[in-house]
Write a structure and sequence with these properties.
With 266 residues, the protein is an alpha/beta fold. It has helices at 26-37, 50-59, 64-72, 93-102, 136-142, 171-174, 197-209, 213-217, 240-257; strands at residues 12-18, 44-48, 81-82, 90-91, 115-121, 126-130, 152-154, 157-161, 177-183, 222-224. The strands form 2 sheets. Strands 1, 2, 5, 6, 7, 8, 9 and 10 form an 8-stranded mixed sheet that branches. It has a two-stranded antiparallel ribbon with strand order 3-4.
């Protein structure tokens, strides 16, 4: 028996990939504001860590500036609770409660925009992209940095931060979207002074999760990476407005220079 293979067309026009980056992820909202102003709206979203949080809320239908207000209600650290378990120092029950409060959708299937959440399966050692079932547990898993945050158990496996293996989730969008916009909020340029143990940890974290970004960026039709974010700390939500503005200004600049989205950016 012979089969004729048909090339399936990509169902979505624009895919949006949002990277991890803790508090720096507020810049995602500024980028999306700039995109919306040019009538560029994603038909599909993929997110890792803080990108998964922002992506879920955007896919739920929330406006970027509305989300900035939600993010500024509390500093990121205030969503975290101390736990003395064996597999994590902090738990994110506060963040889970906040997501349950603000998300209308309880399952992926309820979202207005299709969403892919990146998680690392600690048992198998592989990256997985969730797009169905319960929403909040996958978002929390995607943002759980190993050793710092308690991993999330899903279907008898432990899941943690998707950025361990894929901090800019372009992969689930490639076969589904005609054009892809990638937003990376962890620019890692040279740094002259590293003056504390915590800054060493942060620097190592950014370097490790950003190792493949330049290669992944080649799969993006539009790549937005606000370099100024390098000067902002991982957990500092007190400067959320500044980071939002940085993302907004960088996206506007990239859009003005882009030929691919020129018609929308006029």
């Amino acid at each position: 028996m012979s089969f004729t293979l048909f090339k399936m067309s990509k169902p979505y026009k624009i895919g949006l990939a949002l990277s991890g980056g803790a508090a720096r992820g507020v810049a995602h909202l500024g980028v999306v504001k700039a995109l919306y102003e040019k009538d560029i709206r994603p038909d599909c979203i993929a997110g890792t860590s803080i990108g998964a949080i922002a992506g879920a809320l955007l896919a739920d239908g929330h406006d970027p500036e509305e989300l900035l207000g939600i993010f500024m209600e509390k500093r990121l650290i205030s969503y975290l609770g101390i736990t003395f378990g064996k597999i994590g120092l902090l738990k994110m029950s506060g963040l889970s409660d906040a997501l349950e409060k603000h998300l209308k959708a309880k399952k992926f299937e309820d979202l207005k925009i299709p969403l892919y959440i990146t998680c690392t399966n600690l048992n198998s050692g592989k990256v997985e992209y969730f797009s169905e079932g319960k929403l909040v547990e996958k978002v929390i898993a995607s943002a759980s940095i190993p050793g710092l945050f308690t991993p999330v158990k899903i279907n008898d496996a432990l899941y943690a931060d998707g950025g361990i293996l894929d901090n800019l989730p372009v992969s689930p969008l490639k076969a589904r979207c005609k054009k892809i916009i990638g937003v990376h909020v962890n620019f890692t340029g040279p740094e002259d002074e590293i003056g504390s143990a915590m800054s060493i940890v942060e620097r190592a974290f950014h370097l490790s999760i950003g190792a493949r970004i330049s290669e992944i960026a080649k799969d993006c039709d539009l790549f937005i990476e606000p370099e100024e974010l390098q000067n902002y700390r991982l957990m500092d939500m007190s400067v959320a407005q500044e980071m939002f503005d940085i993302g907004y200004k960088k996206a506007k600049k990239v859009l003005e220079e882009s030929r691919i989205f020129k018609s929308q950016a006029k």
